[in-house]
Amino acid sequence: xxxxxxxxxxxxxxxxxxxxxxxxxxxxxxxxxxxxxxxxxxxxxxxxxxxxxxxxxxxxxxxxxxxxxxxxxxxxxxxxxxxxxxxxxxxxxxxxxxxxxxxxxxxxxxxxxxxxxxxxxxxxxxxxxxxxxxxxxxxxxxxxxxxxxxxxxxxxxxxxxxxxxxxxxxxxxxxxxxxxxxxxxxxxxxxxxxxxxxxxxxxxxxxxxxxxxxxxxxxxxxxxxxxxxxxxxxxxxxxxxxxxxxxxxxxxxxxxxxxxxxxxxxxxxxxxxxxxxxxxxxxxxxx
Length: 287
Hints:
Layout: E1 5-11, E2 16-22, E3 28-32, E4 35-39, E5 44-46, H1 48-59, E6 63-68, E7 77-78, H2 80-87, E8 90-94, H3 97-107, E9 122-124, E10 129-132, E11 135-141, E12 150-154, E13 157-159, H4 181-192, E14 199-201, E15 217-219, H5 220-226, H6 236-247, H7 256-263
Parallel strand pairs: 3-6, 6-8, 8-9, 13-14
Antiparallel strand pairs: 1-2, 2-3, 4-5, 4-7, 10-11, 11-12, 12-13, 14-15
């Protein structure tokens, strides 16, 4: 199996990991889950995270084919438009994005929002294939956290989004609109059916209790044997009951409201109004 090079960029403000995945023989590459820095208290944006990715790509003379989103993120704003403008590449996400757009179009009263996913250059269906240089990629639909979640398998690597966390931290929440603990269980089984030595890359890490360092790379075997929520000794019934109980205790991600309304637009910020200022909406008593 081909072994692409993987460079990780960790954004501690949102605990998000952005990846540049490249074919060492051709220099073609994909960017996965990029971040636009956003300070909620002031409404200020910054491209510091995206700039670090751009610098790495240019230093290593990589050519970007894809800018891939594993799902519509609720905890950070996508940096895809910024990176596409500077580096090129097609933006892509799973076809389930249309369900997320339909839900949140109403929440934010976005009358002009198309809900067909056309804000992205490409929508992936389960089983679709793509290339990063000479390295083959394929898409596994892994809904449960959200309807749009996909896992990108590229050579001997898999980028699982929020479906899984590191084994000592567990699995993602399923209480967002369209989420399902039972569906998540099934999706994770599809990931765990990959070869044992497949390198798995997480979208986030929060340092589990007792661990001093952030971490985001593991393997299928390590997840199957040691994930605290869904190792091989945990039944579907137990997983669903435990996951739903945990979800009832969770608060809302602090950037959910700004992030969702931008990310359903493929990371595009709202147009400026007649005073040349852009605005995000905060629905009152709606969620």
